[in-house]
Structure formats: C-alpha cells, structure tokens
Amino acid sequence: MASFFAAVPLAAPVVVFKITADFKEDPNPKKVNLGVGAYRTDEGTPWVLPVVRKVEKCLANNDSLNHEYVPILGIPEFTKSSYETVLGKDNPAIAEGRVGGVQCLGGTGALRLGAEFLHAWYNGTNNSSTPVYVSAPTWGNHNGVFGGAGFTDIRSYRYWDPTKLGLNLQGLLEDLENAPEFSIIVLHACAHNPTGTDPTPEEWKKIAEVMKKKSLFPFFDSAYQGFASGNLDKDAWAVRYFVSQGFELFCAQSFSKNFGLYNERVGNLCIVAKDSDNVKRIRSQMEKIIRTIWSNPPAQGARIVATTLNDPDLFAEWTGNVKTMADRIFLMRSQLREKLEKLGTPGTWNHITQQIGMFSFTGLNPSQVDYMVKKKHIYLMSNGRINMCSLTTSNLDYVAESIKEAVTASQCQ
Description:
Elements: H1 15-25, E1 32-33, H2 50-60, H3 76-87, H4 92-95, E2 99-105, H5 106-121, E3 132-136, H6 142-148, E4 154-158, E5 160-161, E6 166-167, H7 169-178, E7 184-188, H8 201-213, E8 217-222, H9 232-235, H10 237-244, E9 249-254, E10 266-272, H11 276-291, H12 300-309, H13 312-342, H14 351-354, E11 359-361, H15 366-376, E12 378-379, E13 385-387, H16 396-412
Parallel strand pairs: 1-12, 3-4, 3-7, 7-8, 8-9
Antiparallel strand pairs: 2-10, 5-6, 9-10, 11-13
Helix pairs in contact: 2-12, 2-13, 3-12, 5-6, 5-11, 7-8, 8-10, 13-16, 15-16
C-alpha cells in the first residue's frame, strides 16, 4: 500500500534559513553571512541583553511563580505595558478605554491572529476577497500570513524606487488612492524590511490623509521599535499619529529584536477601536481563535518583557541596551558607505546611511548577489538585502571590496 502522503510535494526551503544553512556548510575561512535577521556583536556573536540576564535571574529566584496556564489572551501586565510602549502611556485612546492587547507567538503570531480575525469579522463576514495591500517589496512572510488566513486578493503598493534608491512616495499614494474602499493596508511602523527606507513624518501625514479619505484599514507591523533609531518614541511616531487621526487599527508588536528574545516568541497585537465595547468584543472573538491554535501563550518571555517595562530602573537599563544595538548599526552603516566610496565603487552609496534599522537594500542586483555568494562566499538575499549588524570591524573591508568587485564585474559583462 502506498503512503497516504505519497502525493505531498517537497516544499521549497525558507530562503533566509537556507542561506544560513548554505553558509554553515561553506568551508571557506573568509565566508560572511549577511542574511540572518538577528543582532550580532562586533565579534559576530549573539548578544543576550544584560537587562534580560538580570531579569531572568530574578524570575528564577521568585518562588511565587509557577507553570500554570496563563490566560488565553495573555499576561495582563504584559499586554498593557506592550501597547503603552507603542502608543505612549499618556495616549488619549488608552485613557478612553479603546485600546486592548493580546499576547501572541511573536510578531508573526500577532500578524496571523489579526489576519484571522479580519478574515472572519472585518467589515462584515466572508472577507476572503477583501483586498490586502503589502508594500513592494515587503517582508517575505506577509503574503503567506494573510494568504494562510484565507485572503485571496493580496496586492502590492509601490514603495521602493530602484532608480533613486529611496521611497516611491508618488507611486505609493497613487496606489492607495486607487485601492478599493475598506481595503486592508499593511504598513511597516519603522525600519522597513527589507529596504530600511521609512517615510518622513510629513510623508506619513500624506499617507494617512489618503487612507482616511478612502476608508482604508491600517495594519502596522512594528518589529523594531527602539531598535531602529535608538529612540522608542521616534520609532512609534507613525502608529501614534494614525491613532491621533481617529483610525481604528491593529499593530503587531515583536520583542524579538529590541529585547533579543528571538526564541521566546514574544509578541503582542495592539487593538485600537472606536470605543471600549468594540475592544471587548474584538478580544472575545480573538480568544476563540487562539483557543483553536495555540490555546495559551508561553510565559517566560512575556514575564521578562513585562518586568522590564514596569520597573523604572530596569526600563532605563533596557533603553540603554537598545541604544547600544542601534548605535552599532549606525556605525556599520557609516563605515560601509565610507569604505565603498573610498574604494571608488561605481554608483552612489549615500542610501546606505539614509536607510535605518537592521536591514539595508544595497541596490545590488541578482547577478551581483550571485557573484558575492559564488566568488566571495558572502551570503545575502537575492534582492540585495543585507543585515547591517552582521558587518563587523574584522569583515567590513572584505565585504566592501567584494561589493566593488561584484559591481565592477557586472559592468564589464
């Protein structure tokens, strides 16, 4: 008898993890992995934030804690401190009781929960054909998350201008203008992945104006608050502005990057609605969805975040740790640009320092990336995205020289 699963095709590997696997198998001593989306020290090693180490020890010595189930919607101290972090404690929407939070399995889980809810309940029922817009390009998982939730009409809005290596604001606004009323728009709160290019506050205002006029629903993905600029308030500006303009919205929050809690899967879905009754009903339906997926969230990572955010001294220490990470990324940006320009690398490289956050859209094309991988053993995404904190003082010269080689070689073909 043949296997019940004989017809199951082999799925393509997840690209970013395939890059890491290929890197590990490469015996070349000069190899560099610029693909992985995680913070690295200047020694190229993972960094456990000192404040996280401190809180972990406190939790380990707290005999009052146990391993009982936490509520389906999460630890209240965590969800409250999470949405206060992105919206600001003094946000009028919080005072008015029209904000709620739901603990999720990382930022991805928050996106998926929001997508599942919207598919079931947004603007009525049976929302499979409601258009969902993501930026072009966007984080590789956005399409899969919304498609997996049942949305069948996933479109893109123009975002990146490859000619000027920056934001295509005109194209973005035109696509929003042409979007059907009530469409769902996925927005990167800061440190756009993969381009590292964010709208300015004035540009965000224009985006919000069009979205309000067209009755479009904002779904923010906030994976890098504080980690992008080193300033929590600056990185949350867009979300707070949309709330101030009266939008109902969702905001998926991740604490993977800004707490370094990658494997703890700590996320929160911030809900901003018209009133407290709406929030109550939304969370009640999300509770039903969660019950059939993960049922109850894990506690350890959420306890670390909640303890830190609710203690003034620990909070101050955390923001210092976050700034340390952001400052190293700024340094690598400036040094990479400086080295590329000193080498006389063809093209302009000012976009490296104009971008923000972990990732940079270098402008390298697929053939140049292929050269980097095969000839120089430097691993990166085929679209030219690199992780800036995978650069170190020991590999920076080699990477810059290799980029020059790749660009020059392509011009000679």
